[in-house]
Amino acid sequence: MKRSIILLLLSLLLALNLSMNQAGEPEASIGTAEMMPDRSIVVMLRTQSADGMVGETRLVYPVGSIGYEELINHLDGIEPSQSRPVPLWPETTAFPDEP
Amino acid sequence: MARWRIEFDENYRSSPVSFWVHRHQDNDIWAEATRFEPPLPQAIVSKGYPRLIIDAFGTKLEFSSIEEVEHCRQVLSQKNLPTSRKLASLRQSSLGPNSHWLSRLPADLKPWRKREKLLPLLDAGLDALKVFYERS
Q1: Mind telling me how many Å the CA of B50 is from chain A's nearest CA?
Q2: Which ranges of B1-136 would DSSP assign to H, the alpha helix?
Q3: Complex-level ipTM
Q4: Gap between the Cα atoms of B51 and B6, Å rounded
Q5: How far is B56 from chain A, CA to nearest CA, in Å?
Q6: How far is A37 from A41, CA to CA, in rounded Å?
Q7: By Cβ atoms counted within 10 A, which residue in A71, B55, B120, B125 is the most buried?
Q8: Model confidence over B92-134: pLDDT tens digits?
Q9: Any CB–CB contact under 8 A between A55 and chain B?
Q10: In 3-state terms, what secondary structure has residue A61?
Q11: Structure pTM?
Q12: Is B58 exposed, middle or buried (0-12, 13-18, 19+ CB in 10 A)?
């Protein structure tokens, strides 16, 4: 069974080193999510390395797609035309390996 | 600012590098071929075809597969760049060196001092692309 796309995203961020703030701690937000009028969600994830290199990934979650409900729960709800920061998933502090 | 980005497309889109990396096997016309070596990338389930876009000091470089990034990295990491003529001849196609991606690369990106700054961007984007494929 395919892994959740969200875990995949977290893997991506970890592979690229999580964004750090100036104190060297992980940023509380790893990007932004916006719900479109058709209720699809556009997520822009952002990571920045210590030397200033910025990496971004744009993902679109149509209604009913893998990870869609999980993402809404993680965002603590989102409605059309709303934009929200994407918080770190709690488990990313000790990221899970492949199941 | 040094920047890379991954976007997903519903349908496969070739890049300026695709022809030079993915050799068509079963048709004289690249765009109409169905078999390539190496094969064209597969779509990632529920997301589509990833494209890596590198902002290289104001120039946008696009890649549609891991093999394309690896190929460009291999070429650009040579301190003495090979000529477009040499690279085009290796492809053994009817297209000449003026059509080669290296020939189309802006001249201000070709000095080694620029390329050595570009390589870490390619590496970071390549790592991200690989993660998507490995974890899907």
Answers
A1: 10
A2: 18-21, 66-76, 84-91, 101-104, 112-135
A3: 0.75
A4: 6
A5: 11
A6: 9
A7: B125
A8: 877 888 899 999 999 999 999 999 999 999 999 999 899 888 8
A9: yes
A10: strand
A11: 0.81
A12: exposed
